[in-house]
Amino acid sequence: MFSKINKYISLDPDVENEKHIQSGQSVISFHDSVNVNCWWASVTNTIYCDNFIHRWTEQPAIAQTTNNDTVRVDAGGGNATAPLTVYIPQNITIEAGQTINWINPTTVGEPHSVTFLRESSLFPPFVVPFAVPSTTEFRALLPNSNVEPLVVPNSAGANNETEKTVIMNNGRVFNPLVIDSTGQNVTYLPLNAHYLMDGTETYINSGWIWPEGQVFPGAPPITSFTVTFEEPATYPYICTVHPWMTGTVEVT
Q: Are residues 67 and 139 in the same domain?
């Protein structure tokens, strides 16, 4: 069971079979027969454990500041037993000119994204059908791999003699990029980008952010995303991998 405490300290989530978290004279304790991995998210006053979450809300969330202008936000967290689909902190207030750096502290290869959408219709599907000439041949670049392209029947009205339909990954999901205010011009960002946001963009995407050392083979090696916010406004964002995972940046 939990004992409520008024002050907390962080516990490394990599430490296995911890039975307590100690802070000053107070202890959060667990039943002796239970072995759990637990850690405390200071920015949300939350204890995360393998099978449950316990939160106190009396104290306001305080973001972790890495320097005077940059604030860290965790995209996800947890471990193989209980990976988290939440931004920590979920809602944050900063001043114009400040920067937020998102990282993924999960201990297993569970990706997340930081994606700003002006409207819901811009939510990107993971895979998309493309029409290619029927004579197109695909050659796998992975030797001795168990792969082949996914070719599906053409849609009604397509010319079956000249084209075929192939299902492909959507590059606008996996790559860091920005679409401008017109919705027409796409700028691809470097991996682990630091982007200066003016608020007119229709779409900003981090790509899939992986934990350090957990990047899936063949995936873009993205482990962070950084945005400097120039203009006061409220900026909601979402994880395209877990669409229920949302956050908000309030810039004053």
A: no
